[in-house]
TrEMBL record:
It comes from Candidatus Eisenbergiella merdipullorum. InterPro entries: DUF6056. The keyword Transmembrane applies. This is Uncharacterized protein. It comes from the Bacteria. Keywords: Membrane, Transmembrane, Transmembrane helix.
Length: 484
């Protein structure tokens, strides 16, 4: 009996010392840490601007069907992003904490989806997962609006996660079919009938999320299918038809979703109220120039990192043919990034946050080039480790400083909300509240951009007045405010 116990202890010790077990443990801990860090920032982000307008509208719905009716009206009069806006409407029916948890889960899911779309990495590659998180945190376009702000997160973070989920699943299916065709002993996708039926549903959702990002997702899916069919035909290794039913239905669903969104009557109505200085060919040239400047503003440093890594991979592979064969995935994602950005030439005046999805595609490309840099030479192994280490150090100080400022902004928003709720209960008609102190601004909070103004006619003041039921809300400087 004692001998059996000793063998069990030895076996457990070997399990702990097993390299893969250790990598899996560190990877799971890094995923947990990623959730905790983003959850804290979600909790410290109050409801702002459009959250108030939509929340007031949602509160007037007496049933789920009325919520869909509200969204149909918006589809007909303002925008076609119905999937993302329905997600927002359902969240606004619940306590904000529920959104904080769900949004943190989706953020981690998005980083995992980026990770899963990178090839040639090790199993449980924690450094690669850390790099993904660092790039999204440091270079995510208007992070405060696209990830933390409730309305913006539902439109951009959740939309990007749905789009990338479809791409990831589609690519996984292609790899399974490719492995089956090469005689690797692996079957194609399991339950192909279910894939044929349910993949187009996810495809519709992915196509119906965000105009340029959904279009970029469709483009990437088409490119993956093209190279899959090309390689099957070139190798002549597969038996039977290379194109499976689920491949067609998935793409059709994705295309339908994109068409339904783009052709929304509300898009045409909104386009009519947007004015431009130039029209015709000159107008498109002006848009192209604006997009180029936006790419520089949002992605210059990330592009520099990606180009440097790409050049290193090129010199290691010694030829364009070898580079294409090994790093095609990164090149395709970089191409889709550019296409997603410049597709905005069709839009009169895109918001900065419209580039968020394109930034996710570029992040995949950069991480792919990072992984493709061979570590056989000590100098490149040191470079890769050093890059992650320096970014971790920068992000540590940034997170601590920004977290403190987020807490201060949250405190002032919370104090003001409590005061406004109290005045609403008292039946006040015209209310004056303090604006934020001017010392807490951080890139991870949209609090100042979404703050009230002295003018009661300012649209954010109107949002607060509508939400709480006042005739007007006016702002005054925080200094000298003594009511609380």
């Amino acid at each position: 009996m004692k001998e059996i116990s000793e063998r069990k202890k030895v076996s457990e010790w070997k399990g702990i010392r097993d390299p893969e077990t250790g990598r899996r443990l560190f990877f799971c801990l890094s995923v947990l840490a990623a959730f905790v860090l983003i959850f804290i920032f979600n909790v410290l982000t109050p409801m702002m601007t459009d959250d108030l307008f939509y929340s007031k509208t949602v509160s007037e719905a007496s049933s789920v069907w009325e919520l869909f009716g509200q969204e149909y009206e918006q589809y007909m009069t303002w925008t076609g992003r119905s999937v993302c806006h329905m997600i927002l409407r359902f969240f606004l029916l619940t306590d904000k904490m529920f959104f904080n948890v769900a949004n943190s889960v989706v953020f981690v899911l998005l980083t995992l989806l980026i990770y899963w779309n990178v090839e040639h990495k090790k199993k449980y590659d924690t450094p690669v997962f850390l790099l993904v998180n660092l790039l999204v945190w440091m270079f995510g376009v208007v992070f405060r609006q696209t990830v933390l702000w409730e309305t913006g997160a539902c439109n951009y973070l959740w939309g990007s996660a749905i789009i990338l989920s479809f791409i990831t699943l589609y690519r996984y299916g292609l790899k399974r079919e490719s492995a089956s065709g090469q005689g690797a002993g692996k079957p194609g996708v399991r339950h192909p009938v279910l894939w044929t039926v349910f993949l187009p549903i996810l495809g519709v959702l992915a196509g119906w999320c965000n105009e340029n990002t959904s279009g970029g997702g469709l483009l990437m899916t088409l490119l993956c299918l093209f190279f899959y069919l090309y390689e099957r035909k070139r190798d002549s290794a597969g038996s039977g038809h290379a194109l499976k039913p689920w491949m067609a239905t998935g793409l059709i669903g994705n295309g339908i979703g994109l068409a339904v969104m783009v052709l929304a009557p509300g898009n045409a109505i909104r386009a009519q109220v947007q004015e431009e200085e130039h029209s015709g060919l000159l107008g498109y040239m002006a848009r192209f120039q604006k997009i180029t400047l936006a790419v520089r503003e949002n992605f210059l440093l990330l592009l520099i990192i990606g180009i440097l890594l790409f050049i290193i991979v090129y010199y290691q592979k010694k030829s364009w043919k070898a580079l294409w064969a090994y790093s095609r995935n990164g090149i395709l994602w970089a191409f889709v990034f550019l296409a997603t950005c410049y597709a905005l030439v069709l839009t009169p005046e895109p918001q900065a946050r419209a580039y968020f999805g394109a930034g996710i595609f570029l992040t995949i490309a950069v991480v792919q080039f990072f992984v493709d840099v061979s570590e056989k030479e000590v100098v490149f192994a040191s470079l890769k480790t050093g890059l992650i280490s320096v970014m971790l150090l920068i992000m540590f100080f940034t997170y601590m400083d920004s977290g403190a400022n987020l807490a201060r902004i949250y405190r002032e928003y919370h104090e003001r909300d409590v005061y406004l709720a109290q005045k609403a209960e008292e039946g006040a008609a015209d209310v004056t509240v303090p604006m934020l102190r001017p010392d807490f601004e951080t890139k991870y909070s949209d609090g100042y951009n979404s703050d009230i103004r002295e003018d009661p006619g300012y649209w954010i003041n109107v949002a607060y007045a509508t939400y709480y039921g006042f005739n007007s809300v006016s702002g005054v400087p925080r200094e000298g405010w003594t009511d609380y």
